[in-house]
Amino acid sequence: MPTRTIRSSPSLANVRYEIRGRLARRAQEMERLGYDIVSLNIGNPGAFGFRTPETMRLAMIENLRSAEGYCHQKGIFPAREAVVMQQQERGVRGVTAEDVFIGNGVSELIDLTLRALLAADEEVLVPSPDYPLWTAAVNLNRGRAVHYPCRPERGFVPDPEEIESLVTKRTRAIVVINPNNPTGAVYPRAVLEAIAAIAEKHHLLVLADEIYDQMTYDGAEFVPMATLVQHTLCGTLSGLSKVYRACGYRVGWAVFSGDVEHSREYLSALELLTSLRLCSNVPGQWAVQTALGGYQSVRELVGPGGRLHASRRAIVEAVGRSRYLTLAPPMGALYAFVGVREGALPEFDDQQFAYDLLEHKHVLVAPGSSFNVSYRNHFRITNLPEPQVIADVFARIEELLDSYAAGDQPATRANPALRVVDAAGRN
């Protein structure tokens, strides 16, 4: 009987997620062969010994009997009300539990908020570099991601004038990731005010990805976007994964504020989509009220003497000692977007470097071009490991870069079959 190849959907042609792509699969193969791999490609606190606060675990356990059936499509009321209380404490007015949607992590809500919004070929302004799910979700939902640059020379902070120059009659929304993944930039209030004004002027939906909202360093100020947007709709997305070290609970939320009254059709469409997937994970939702209303232990982690603060400092110091590397010090989130100095290694390629680093130094990082940038001289690492691990990792990186500078060619570089091919088909 003749066979027929089952092909993938053409809608995946522009979808990339190298963070869990070929490099990550190769790392898993190497681990099965007995190699110890230092995996710095994903911001997964649990993999580095961070625990979810005990009070959250107890809240889930104590409410398991109430978590065996479906809940309301928007989520359980105590969780939604806790999100409302947090927004009110931050100065956001007029929000009710009806404006809150609980999802299976922020990832699901990114998809749903865009699916409810976009028609074919409509545009969404997305930062570059970005968390690649945003670009992927725009493409998967028939839209077109238009990237506004967050340039290394500006500390990865966008220029509002450049953003506005990209607005067209087909633009429907603007995405703001603050504190930023992958760069760690924390946007100044004046920049956020200017972005809010652009959105209001052009009647754009603002989608504020604030999953790292309490993770800031050395006095950096986090300004909630919802406090600045009044005359258009603002959707704030956050969750338990990062601040509360509960990635596996898969609990996120989107809360809408600003001009809700003229957005009822859109919000009804979003509720329809949440109804189609019945509801999000119920046991994890019972941890939300305790998380948001309880002791915020993350402040100890990011403050002086805290583990995340110390690890971030270790990255900054290691880059400072390097002959090749450069860094805009991350002021928030869990990552550093490290660059190779222009001219230091003229033939440097981030994809090949990441592959060589994995094969020869047993360290897994995410190539910078995975985050929708045109340049190929950056890579992203997480600051979750202990400082001594980070110091060792950068020693290995420096050894590899020294070999590049000396003209050495690792064996894998000469074998095209072993080279990394990204989702766009480039070697």
Gist?
The chain is α/β, with parallel strands linked by helices and 427 residues long. It has helices at 22-32, 54-62, 77-89, 105-115, 132-140, 160-165, 189-202, 264-276, 282-285, 288-293, 298-302, 307-321, 350-361, 387-405; strands at residues 38-39, 100-103, 123-128, 144-149, 171-177, 205-209, 233-239, 252-258, 325-326, 335-340, 363-364, 366-367, 378-382. It has 2 domains: 10-50 and 300-418, Alpha-Beta Complex (Aspartate Aminotransferase, domain 1); 66-293, Type I PLP-dependent aspartate aminotransferase-like (Major domain) (Aspartate Aminotransferase, domain 2).
Topology, element by element:
Layout: H1 22-32, E1 38-39, H2 54-62, H3 77-89, E2 100-103, H4 105-115, E3 123-128, H5 132-140, E4 144-149, H6 160-165, E5 171-177, H7 189-202, E6 205-209, E7 233-239, E8 252-258, H8 264-276, H9 282-285, H10 288-293, H11 298-302, H12 307-321, E9 325-326, E10 335-340, H13 350-361, E11 363-364, E12 366-367, E13 378-382, H14 387-405
Parallel strand pairs: 1-11, 3-4, 3-5, 5-6, 6-7
Antiparallel strand pairs: 2-8, 7-8, 9-10, 10-13, 12-13
Helix pairs in contact: 4-5, 12-14
